[in-house]
Amino acid sequence: MNELMLFFLSFFGVLLLLYPFENLQRKNKIGQFIREEGPDLHNHKTGTPTSAGLVFIPVVLLAVTFFSKDHNLIIPVTTGVLFGIVGAMDDLAKLIKRNSSGISALTRLILEFFIAFFIVYMIQRVNPHTHLLIPFSKKSIDIGFLYFPFAMTAIVGTANAVNITDGVDGLAGSVYIASVFPLIILGYHGSLYSALIGALLGFLWHNWYPAKVFMGDTGSLSLGGILAASLAMTGREIYLFLFGFIFVVETLSDIIQVGSFKLRNKRVFKMAPVHHHFELLGWHESKIAFRFSIIALGFSLLGLLGWRGYW
Length: 311
Description:
Elements: H1 2-27, H2 53-67, H3 74-97, H4 105-126, E1 131-133, E2 140-142, H5 147-165, H6 171-186, H7 190-207, H8 216-232, H9 240-243, H10 245-264, H11 274-280, H12 285-308
Antiparallel strand pairs: 1-2
């Protein structure tokens, strides 16, 4: 019942608050700057209101602070807030520069790893461990002193993977919902994910094609950080390959494309990340978001089975 209340509070809160948020940006001519290296199909999106994470992250934060009975949320919530601040800095830099570059990649990575260090330190204070649980089994791997950098990389990598996925209307939000829904079934941080799903559905009301607002780096970095930190609390970073399958694929497609072009002077995809490849094949943005979400749900359900050790 508590999860249901959090869901509806977040859903209606975000759904309603985004209307004045969008209008304020349009009135002041504030909006998204489209990457020059992106598809020409996206040029018409220039000027679309952005940084909706500034709305849905605070709504979720307030909802779980006042109505959640789960006392184990401080680490994932703190992660979301801190990564959201980095994302907001990036979004603000884009508006000031009036282009899509934002803060430098090096500066952003340094900030992200600093936050990740702090988060992993907090996790170790609450639940000291150096092991990684293996899906579909009751076994674990103890990686000793390597755990700290591994967990930090998992958190930073997931935050940026969600950011990379946020490239077509409705994609990142719908894939994230599909990815974390089974965690509610498991009862793992259920109140937080109920609030997040409600908030993202309210956001998708505005973000589904044709999008009236984008989540911005504020939203995407925060969402990725929350998911990774949540799983890292119990040594389940490997589960990110299941609960974050699409995010992993999107990131790998980018790495493969860059590596192939540098080593062979050839591209594997028409454009990376892979959602742009399908766009250039003629897939509609809604089709990409819907099908990627189905795949994400399938792998996250595998994660549910792997969590219980069933096969």
